[in-house]
From TrEMBL:
Residues bound to AMP: K410, G411, P412, D413, T414, G439
Residue stretches making up the YjeF N-terminal domain: 15-213
Protein name: Bifunctional NAD(P)H-hydrate repair enzyme
CC cofactor: K(+); Mg(2+)
Keyword set includes Nucleotide-binding: yes
Originating gene: nnrD
Recorded catalytic activity of this chain's protein: (6R)-NADHX = (6S)-NADHX; (6S)-NADHX + ADP = AMP + phosphate + NADH + H(+); (6S)-NADPHX + ADP = AMP + phosphate + NADPH + H(+); (6R)-NADPHX = (6S)-NADPHX
Origin organism lineage: Bacteria, Pseudomonadati, Pseudomonadota, Alphaproteobacteria, Hyphomicrobiales
Xref: SUPFAM superfamilies: Ribokinase-like (SSF53613), YjeF N-terminal domain-like (SSF64153)
Binding site for (6S)-NADPHX: 62-66, 127-133, 156, 258, 321, 373, 440
Length: 491
C-alpha cells in the first residue's frame, strides 16, 4: 500500500470521484480492473494454496468485473475455478462486460451454487456500489456459504456491508480476508463491517496517490500521524506547572471511585499536577485513597470561583460519578471557558438544557470535549442518533457541529469529530476495554492532553489512541486500574 494513503479513509462517493478523475487523466479503467482482479487472485493463491476449488461469485457491476478477472487469472494458473453470477452476464456493461467476455469459464446462475468441502469463495457480488439491501438470491447463497463454513475472500468489501456506514444491508458475508483498492473505506473500520472484513489488505491498483488524496475529505484513521505534531517531547527545562494542572471533580461520598480513576489516569498521562476536587462529605474517603493526586474541598460555585482565580489550573474533567443535576450544570458552565472534558453525568445533566451548554461552547473561547457512549449520545443528540441514514462518523460530525464541541463517540469503533467536520476513526482498541471505569480513564487522558495545551481535537484523538494502546498492553484480564498503569508515553 502507498504510505501516503495509509491513514486516509475514502467514502464510496469519493472513490467514484477518484475513479472519474483517474479516467479523465487518461488512465485506462480496464487496466485498473485487471489490476484489482489480479490482486484478488494472488491473495487467493497465497492464502488458500490448499483450496480444491475457487468459486467466484460475480455481481452485476464492476465488483463482478473484478471477479471475472480473478477467475480468469486463477484458471490461467491451473486452478479449478467455477463462476456463478447474480443477474445475466449479457446485462453487464462497460469494463465488467469486457472482463466477462475475456473470461474463458462458463457462468452458472448464483442459485445453482452448492458449497462443497474444499471450496474457497471469492465474493465479487457487490462492492462500493451496494445501494440497497441485498436481493433474495444473495441471501440464500450467503446463508449456504456460512452454514458450510466455506472461507470467503471479499473483493473490496464483503457483499452486504455498506462501504459508507459499515452497516449490513440485510445480510453479508463474513470474510476471512478482504482485498480493497487504494485506500480503506469507512465500512472497513466501522462496526459491524469491520468484523465482517476479516484481515484487510489495501492494494495499490495504480491510481496516483495525489488523485486520491486530493479528493479524499477530512477523514482519517486515528494514528499518531493525525496528531503527533501536537504531542511535543518533554522540554528538559520544564516544571510541573508547565505540564499543566488538571482538576477532576469528584462526586459524593458513595461515588468517588470514577473521578479518582480519571485523576490517576490524568497524572499517568502526563499532566504536571492533578487536583481532585471534592465535596466536604467525600473528603475523608478521597483522602484515604490518594497519594500523588492532590485534594481540594469545593462545596459550591463560590468556592469554585475562588479556585479559578488560579489561572494555572487549566483543564478539568467533570462527569465521572459526579451526579446528575444543577450542580453539574453550574460547574460545567463555569469551566467551559478553560478546557473541559464533559463525560458521563456531566453530559446527562444537560439532557434538557443543552442549548445553554452549546451556546457557551460556541462563545466562550475555551476547549470543550464530550465523550458519549451510545446511550449518552442518544440522550444528548436524540434527533441525530435516530437518523438511520447517517453513519457513526456522520453522526459524530453532526453532533460536533451542533454542540461546537469535539465529540468522542465511543465504542469499538470510536469516532472523534470536530465542529469543522474533521474526523478520525479509531482502530486500535481491544474489546477488553469494555470494563467498568475504562471510560473514566479515557476522560482523564483527554484532560491531561488539554492541560498540556493540546488543541481539543488532537487532545481527544491522541487520548483515544493511547487508551487503545494501554488496553492492548494491559491484556485481557485488565481492570481500569491496570489500564492506567499501561498508558504508553506519547509517541
Ligand atoms: N474505484 C475504483 O477505482 C475501482 C473499482 N473497482 C471495483 O468496482 C466496484 C464498484 O463497482 P460499481 O460501482 O459498479 O458497484 P458494484 O458494487 O459492483 O454494484 C453495482 C451494481 O449493483 C447493482 N446493485 C446495487 N445494490 C444492489 C442491490 N442491493 N441489489 C441488486 N443490485 C444492486 C447496481 O444496480 P443499480 O443500483 O444501478 O440498479 C449496479 O448494477 C468496487 O467495489 C471495486 O470492486 C475495480 O474495478 C477497480 C477500480
Ligand atoms: N468492544 C469494545 N472494543 C473496544 N473498545 C471498547 C469496546 N467497548 C467499549 N470500549 C471502550 O471502552 C470505554 C468504555 O467507556 P464507557 O462506556 O464510558 O464505560 P465506563 O462508564 O464503564 O467507564 C470507551 O473508551 C469505549 O470506546
Ligand atoms: K464483494
Amino acid at each position: 500500500m502507498l504510505d501516503a494513503l495509509q491513514n486516509v479513509l475514502v467514502t464510496p462517493a469519493e472513490m467514484t470521484a477518484i475513479d472519474k478523475a483517474a479516467a479523465d487523466s487518461g488512465i485506462d479503467s480496464f487496466t485498473l480492473m485487471r489490476s484489482a482482479g489480479m490482486a484478488v487472485s494472488a491473495a487467493a493463491l497465497r492464502l488458500f494454496p490448499e483450496a480444491l476449488r475457487f468459486v467466484v461469485l460475480c455481481g452485476p457491476g464492476n465488483n463482478g468485473g473484478d471477479g471475472y478477472v480473478a477467475a480468469s487469472a486463477l484458471a490461467d494458473g491451473g486452478a479449478d475455478v467455477a463462476v456463478f453470477a447474480l443477474g445475466k452476464p449479457e446485462a453487464l456493461k462497460g469494463d465488467a462486460a469486457r472482463a466477462q467476455r475475456a473470461c474463458p469459464l462458463s457462468v452458472q446462475p448464483l442459485i445453482a451454487y452448492e458449497p462443497q468441502v474444499g471450496d474457497v469463495v471469492i465474493d465479487a457480488l457487490f462492492g462500493a456500489g451496494l445501494a440497497r439491501d441485498l436481493p433474495e438470491e444473495a441471501y440464500e447463497t450467503i446463508e449456504r456459504v456460512s452454514e458450510g463454513r466455506i472461507p470467503v475472500i471479499a473483493v473490496d468489501l464483503p457483499s452486504g456491508v455498506d462501504g459508507r456506514t459499515g452497516e449490513v444491508r440485510g445480510t453479508s458475508f463474513t470474510a476471512a480476508h478482504t482485498v480493497t483498492f487504494m485506500a480503506r473505506k469507512p465500512g472497513h473500520l466501522l462496526m459491524p463491517g469491520r468484523v465482517r472484513c476479516g484481515a484487510l489488505e489495501v492494494f495499490d491498483i495504480g491510481i496516483p496517490a495525489r488523485l486520491v488524496s486530493e479528493r479524499a475529505g477530512d477523514l482519517r484513521i486515528n494514528t499518531p500521524a493525525a496528531w503527533g505534531s501536537h504531542a511535543s517531547a518533554l522540554d528538559p527545562a520544564t516544571h510541573k506547572y508547565r505540564r499543566g494542572h488538571l482538576g477532576v471533580l469528584s462526586g459524593g461520598s458513595l461515588s468517588t471511585g470514577a473521578a479518582r480513576l480519571s485523576a490517576a489516569a490524568g497524572l499517568a498521562a502526563g499532566a504536571g499536577l492533578v487536583t481532585l476536587v471534592s465535596p466536604a462529605e467525600a473528603l475523608a474517603v478521597n483522602a484515604s485513597h490518594l497519594t500523588a493526586v492532590m485534594l481540594r474541598e469545593i462545596r459550591d460555585t463560590e468556592d469554585l470561583a475562588t479556585w479559578l482565580k488560579d489561572k494555572r489550573v487549566n483543564a478539568f474533567v467533570l462527569g465521572p460519578g459526579f451526579g446528575v443535576g444543577k450542580k453539574a450544570r453550574d460547574f460545567a458552565l463555569m469551566l467551559c471557558d478553560r478546557a473541559l472534558v464533559l463525560d458521563a453525568d456531566g453530559m446527562t445533566s444537560f439532557e434538557k438544557a443543552r442549548a445553554e451548554l452549546f451556546e457557551r461552547a460556541a462563545n466562550s473561547g475555551g476547549r470543550l470535549v464530550m465523550t458519549p457512549h451510545e446511550g449518552e449520545f442518544a440522550r444528548l443528540f436524540p434527533e441525530i442518533a435516530a437518523d438511520a441514514a447517517l453513519s457513526k462518523i456522520e453522526k459524530a460530525q453532526a453532533a460536533a457541529r451542533l454542540s461546537h464541541a469535539v465529540i468522542v463517540y465511543k465504542g469499538p469503533d470510536t469516532v472523534v469529530a470536530a465542529p469543522s467536520g474533521r474526523a478520525v476513526v479509531n482502530a486500535n482498541a481491544p474489546p477488553s476495554l469494555a470494563t467498568a471505569g475504562s471510560g473514566d480513564v479515557l476522560a482523564g487522558i483527554v484532560g491531561a492532553h488539554l492541560a498540556q495545551g493540546m488543541p481539543a481535537f488532537e487532545a481527544a484523538a491522541a487520548a483515544v489512541w493511547r487508551h487503545g494502546e494501554a488496553g492492548t498492553r494491559a491484556g485481557r484480564g485488565m481492570t481500569a486500574e491496570t489500564l492506567i498503569e499501561n498508558i504508553p508515553p506519547l509517541p
